[in-house]
Specification:
CATH class of the largest domain in chain A: Alpha Beta
Low-confidence stretches of chain B: none
Distance between the termini of chain A: 17 Å
Oligomer: heterodimer
Number of strands of chain B: 21
Helix content of chain B: 25-40%
CATH superfamily of the largest domain in chain B: ANL, N-terminal domain
Strand order of the largest sheet of chain B: 4-3-5-6-7-8-9-14-13
Order of helices and strands of chain A: EHEEHEHEEHH
Number of helices of chain B: 12
CATH architecture of the largest domain in chain A: 2-Layer Sandwich
Shape of chain A: globular
CATH topology of the largest domain in chain B: Rossmann fold
Number of domains of chain A: 2
CATH architecture of the largest domain in chain B: 3-Layer(aba) Sandwich
Number of helices of chain A: 5
Largest sheet of chain A: 6 strands, antiparallel
Strand content of chain B: 15-25%
Mean pLDDT of chain A: 90
Number of domains of chain B: 2
């Protein structure tokens, strides 16, 4: 049930981020969510896009350092305490989160939270047990 | 084991010394007589003649600057009409170092290159893809002459045009690749991009030189190409490629000491070091006509051994792989650093590519060493934590070897400029600062 996120290694230099983003735009790739982890010398751009396979292929062909990472995307009620509830399910089972980012859905007023977790299988089981809605690749396309 | 000139390649030490002293006497007198530079040099030091090989150590050294000062032809022993070929190398300072060859010099060059190719395992039926640059650089034509002399097929493709190189390797079924070690790696990388597996090509041996490279880099190249990678050494001031070469035993480079007499000296004091001690290689051409070089300081750091090669039984002295050039040696906070030391570390860490660049700066009167290292596509981790661990690991290992702290900067795969010829590994910004005032 996990989905694939694209991770791109970027050197810290003026215009490099724009190079990737505008490249994707020109190739008709729509970005659903993104986050940028920044270090002094480099950053990692993490993306959820509408057409992951195409984006991966063209990035690779154009010599960007891109890899695919499995992440979990869950639907959260867009109200105070919504995310906390989900995190608690994980904490209770001693599952740590590597990183997290979120975006708000336009259509049904829910937030989508992307989680990177080492033991994805276990996390999925727990979330399902607690009736948390996990998004599939096909759901992402529809967003 | 096949030799090109068996009698001389397995000559006894005593016989070799006999040839060397005869030729040394001759070249000393010849140079003194024909070239004003040497006449002046030896008059100044009061040395009139050479009686034995041990007299050599009393002669003054010659240096690259001597060639530049006598630009273009003043070091030549003969009239230009006797000189059939001229080569030149550009130094970092801009002025060319010019060298010339008489007909006999070309003959000697062809001969030592033929010996070198045979020593590296090249046989009749082999096809040499010669990707050293043809032109003023001696690499291309040196290999070419050797191939003709040995009687094997040579493709004079010269350096560059990597896609065409790969097409020709596949279509002509080349078996021997001659180029710089860094270019061979670049070629393998390009091959994979084009969907060609370099391991599946017909190339079985690489004869690589013109820049220092490490054992780690050798392993990498051999793995990428599934071939034997052997080191060849030479410099245009002496003759070009063909001064020394490895055999398949990889037990050091066999110096053709009937033509080029090697010594190893302490670069500080100029004293000759005993066998096995590391120092600067000094070469004397014993047979060169147009441009005899006597006690030429190569700037290359090596060790020398006189024992018989355990693999091929050739008897001539062997030098170790070049550790580095004295000019490339960086002094960082008083510590000597060779780029090859950093290369050795990187080739042992699978998560990074062996392409690197060293950047030296000075901040608040303190030298800073930064090493830019490429992550590889395969090992690129999405997690900052892992990248940080990798960066720390590379820093730790380099610092451990050099004995001083360095900062490592991870950069995108293939972002460090690839070279078709000699790789530019070091950017010393301290010099620019100095020049800029």
């Amino acid at each position: 049930m996990s989905i694939k996120q694209l991770s791109i290694f970027l050197e810290n230099r003026l215009g490099r981020l724009n190079e990737v983003i505008s490249f994707l735009g020109k190739n008709n790739i729509n970005i659903r969510a993104l986050s940028l982890a920044d270090k002094a010398d480099y950053g990692i751009l993490r993306l959820i896009v509408n057409n992951k396979n195409k984006a991966f292929k063209i990035l690779k062909e154009n010599k960007f350092s891109v890899s695919e990472t499995e992440v979990i995307a869950v639907e959260v009620e867009d109200k105070p305490g919504g995310l906390a509830k989900i995190l608690k399910y994980l904490v209770d089972e001693k599952i740590s989160v590597e990183y997290i980012y979120a975006f708000v859905e336009k259509s049904n007023k829910k937030a989508v939270v992307v989680l990177r977790i080492e033991d994805i299988k276990k996390a999925e089981k727990i979330l399902k047990k607690n009736k948390v809605k996990l998004l599939k690749e096909s759901d992402i396309k529809k967003l | 084991m096949e030799y090109f000139q068996k009698e001389i390649e397995i000559i006894s030490e005593k016989e070799l010394k006999k040839i060397q002293i005869e030729r040394l006497k001759k070249i000393f007198n010849f140079a003194k007589e024909k070239i004003p530079f040497y006449k002046k040099l030896y008059e100044k030091t009061g040395i009139k003649k050479i009686d034995s090989l041990s007299d050599l150590k009393n002669l003054p050294f010659t240096k690259k600057t001597d060639l530049r000062d006598n630009y273009p032809f003043k070091m030549f022993s003969c009239d230009l009409k006797e000189v059939l070929e001229i080569h030149a190398s550009s130094g970092t300072t801009g002025k060319l170092t010019v060298v010339g060859y008489t007909r006999n010099d070309i003959e000697v060059w062809s001969e030592v290159m033929a010996r070198s190719l045979a020593c590296a395992g090249v046989r009749k039926g082999d096809i040499i893809q010669n990707a050293y640059g043809y032109g003023l650089f001696t690499g291309g034509l040196g290999v070419h002459y050797g191939a003709l002399k040995l009687g094997v097929t040579v493709i004079p493709i010269s350096a560059g045009g990597t896609q065409r190189q790969l097409m020709i390797i596949q279509d002509f079924k080349s078996t021997v690749l001659t180029c710089t070690p860094s270019y061979s790696l670049y070629m393998a990388e390009e091959a994979k991009e084009m969907g060609i597996d370099p391991r599946k090509t017909t190339i079985r041996v690489g004869i690589l030189g013109a820049e220092p490279w490490t054992e780690g880099m050798r392993r990498q190249i051999e793995k990428e190409w599934d071939m034997i990678a052997l080191d060849i050494y030479g410099l245009s001031e002496i003759i070009g490629p063909g001064v020394a070469v490895e055999c398949e035993g990889k037990e050091g480079l066999h110096v053709w000491a009937d033509h080029f007499l090697p010594e190893v000296i302490d670069p500080e004091t100029g004293e000759v070091l005993e066998e096995g001690k590391e120092g600067e290689l000094v070469l004397t051409t014993l047979t060169k006509e147009a441009l005899p070089m006597i006690r030429y300081r190569t700037g290359d750091i090596v060790k020398i051994t006189n024992s018989v090669c355990p693999n091929c039984k050739r008897t001539m002295p062997r030098i170790s792989k070049i550790k580095g050039r004295i000019d490339d040696m960086l002094i960082i906070r008083g510590i000597n650093v060779f780029p090859s030391q950093i290369e050795t570390v990187l080739t042992k860490i699978p998560e990074v590519a062996p392409h690197y660049q060293i950047i030296v700066t000075r901040e608040k009167h303190l030298d800073k060493l930064e090493v830019r290292v490429e992550i590889t596509e395969k090992t690129f981790s999405d997690e900052i934590k892992k990248l940080e661990e990798l960066q720390k690991k590379v820093e730790r290992e380099i610092s451990g070897v050099l004995g001083l702290s360095v900062s490592v900067k991870l950069v995108e795969p293939k972002s460090i400029e690839r070279s078709m010829g000699k790789a530019k590994r070091v950017i010393d910004l301290r010099k620019e600062l100095k020049e800029g005032g």
